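Example 4.3 (complexes with small molecules)
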Amino acid sequence: MNTSSILVIYTGGTIGMKAHPMTGELVPFRFEHVLEEVPELRKFGFRIDTHSFDPVIDSSDIFPEFWIRLALLIEGQYDKYDGFVVLHGTDTMSYSASALSFMLENLEKPVIFTGSQLPIGLPRTDGKENFISAVEIAAEKDREGHAIVPEVCIFFQDELFRGNRTFKYNAEEFRAFRSPNHPPLAEAGIHIKYNHKYIRYPDTWGKKLRIHTRLGTDIAILKIFPGTEKRVVEAVLGIEGLRAVILETYGQGNAPSVKWLLELLSAAVSKGIIILNITQCPAGSVSMNSYACGARLQEAGVLSGYDMTTEAAVTKIMLLTGLFSDNVRVKYFLSQSLNGEFS
Ligand code: ASP
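Answer. The structure with aspartic acid bound is encoded below.
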């Protein structure tokens, strides 16, 4: 029998709503009574404890301070549990999962984010299945007692993804998340099938969890479109104290080859602003050597973000600019995969 212990952390979002038995009105679900509300969980025989954020929030209200609270909570409870399930609104779930993947260094236990498109209290909810499977995955251990998925993940609609590879793809369908640049780590059908070769395992087990709680927010995202005006680029690159810009470009990392754009980017790089090139395409990678307009960006000092999602790029830069005041180390670590965030 699996005697795992799981901490369920409820942060808010659609999943935590149920219909009031008298009025039918949607009210927050009482997570301290989780085993009464989702009795199916008892059948696992796991120890399941709960922690509810107070107040619970719509995930649109999430700021980096929230990630710090979450990381501190996981650190404080780390030795007591085999795995963690974070119930979270779907809107910013990929940002939170990406942030935590960078903030929790040497993670050896599952941290599984999930949520739902329909409240858990509605008859057609996707919340129960997402929740129950996330708990099962968080509890899974091998014969030596090591976690099967020692990563920060998102479980949604029968797929388990590496958190920092995901984005919210669909505002309505139950299959709300995608991870086009990295295969699912597990698929839940009759059995949960783990794709072990895509899961990251520590080189040696038993390292101490280390958390990073300094996040830099002097960053901006600049999305290029046909007609992007010089004054807009100037305004963004001219922001006082700006440390980094995520430049969302076309295709394999291309941008208009107009002189003013290259000059502005190159001047910003010379001033010490880090510019990271991310493709607007949901799948595939930046490859600045493929076209002349990409190569010019590289000459201007723009760095490749490879096949990172915007969510991973934003949170990785927050972590690195929070950790290091010098750009040399920020640039070095941007070129390294820290937690499987690029291929
Ligand atoms: N707005 C909600 C949230 O992100 C949507 C959801 O949970 O699905 O908190």
